[in-house]
Design a protein that fits this description.
globular, Aminopeptidase, alpha+beta, six-stranded antiparallel β-sheet, Elongation Factor Tu (Ef-tu), domain 3, 361 residues, 26% strand
């Protein structure tokens, strides 16, 4: 991973992008990929679509959602305390005592989120799982009037956005789901152009999709505008290389083990086979995973677009998903970007992903 790509990833982690509030991160993506793409556009839904390659070739769509779970200001009380509702799937226990940021039109406002101290909880309260309605955000305001000078109802909120390095190229912080996937699909376009010296035979559309966390919404509308022949979604998946995770259910998925290539009914078998073959050809480490139902990510809606799209799913191992300490391997995302670039490089007008024409294993 070169310095520019590494810096782009770090900047993405530090940039807020709750579902429906992705403008800041899409500007960052645009600034990074524009010098390497033939065209970059943002559709009315907010998806950023970077294009490269032969416009007469097969349309290849890569989808990595840039949105992250967050919160939304819903009320400010007379004492200046802020109440919020969630955006996306939160475990409320993850929020107690966290440093937060409210992203206003006038800039970021530091906040903390908490509840009544344990010393003041009665016996019944101590036994209950805390709900989001029992927490509030404290910005230090003396009253409602001061709080409203900067904050408005509907302002988005995130955890304190930072990235901390651990050992063995592992980094942690909020938003790895799925700024990692977004980074890979955008970086893969740059690398694919580099590998082919700008002579891609397919028409590649690398899409930083929006609103995945609230129902796979961006990938659905982006596919409507692109009408891809082949599509690959990139998202995180649960790593099982930590305590309490059952490998019998989740599979043996390790940080640093390489891209996770999924197989199952939501996945076109020829696409997954091509990904495996390319990983082996270019000595890219990979892991296999299975899912026997519709996936809970962008691959779901991509497969069902129009008359059907040959769809693949590549995932990035992630520990502690939807928390302030999501952990991923930088080596894994680097390898995913290489694998996607090689897939784009290999795609030609002669390729047919119709299952009926499959041969071999």
């Amino acid at each position: 991973m070169n310095h520019e790509a590494r810096q782009f990833f770090e900047n993405a982690i530090h940039t807020p992008s709750p579902s429906g509030y992705e403008e800041r991160i899409q500007q960052l993506v645009n600034d990074y990929i524009s010098p390497h793409a033939d065209q970059v556009r943002i559709d009315v839904h907010g998806n950023l679509i970077a294009q490269a390659g032969d416009t007469s070739g097969p349309r290849l769509m890569y989808a990595g959602h840039c949105d992250q779970i967050g919160m939304l200001v819903s009320h400010i009380d007379e004492n200046g305390f802020v109440y919020a509702q969630t955006i996306g799937g939160w475990d409320p226990q993850q929020l107690i005592g966290q440093a937060m940021t409210i992203w206003t039109d006038n800039g970021p406002v530091p906040a903390l989120i908490s509840r009544k101290p344990i010393h003041l909880l009665n016996d019944a309260e101590r036994k209950q799982v805390v709900g989001i309605d029992e927490m509030w955000l404290d910005i230090g305001a003396c009253d409602e009037s001061q709080a409203r000078e900067d904050i408005r109802i509907g302002d988005p909120i995130t955890l304190d956005l930072r990235m901390r390095p651990l050992m063995n190229s592992i980094v942690c912080g909020p938003g790895m789901d799925n700024k990692t996937g977004m980074w890979t699909v955008i970086e893969s376009l740059r690398r694919a152009n580099e590998f082919t010296k700008g002579k891609l035979q397919c028409h590649l559309h690398s899409v930083s999709t929006v609103q995945e966390e609230i129902g796979l919404r961006g990938a659905k509308t982006a596919a409507g505008g692109i009408n891809p022949t082949v599509a690959i979604a990139v998202d995180v998946t649960h790593a099982s290389d930590c305590p309490t995770i059952d490998k019998n259910k989740q599979g043996n998925i390790r940080l640093g083990g390489g891209p996770v290539i999924f197989r199952g009914p939501n996945i076109n078998p020829a696409v997954s086979r091509r990904l495996i073959d390319l990983a082996e050809q270019y000595d890219i480490p990979y892991q296999l995973a299975a899912i026997g139902r519709a996936t809970p990510n962008d691959a779901n809606v991509l497969q069902l677009h129009g008359a059907g799209v040959a769809t693949g799913l590549v995932a990035i191992p992630n520990r502690y998903m939807h928390s302030a300490v999501e952990a991923i391997s930088l080596d894994d995302i680097d390898h995913v970007a290489d694998l996607l670039a090689r897939f784009a490089e290999a795609l030609t007008p002669e390729d047919d992903f119709t299952p009926a024409v499959l041969g071999g294993r």
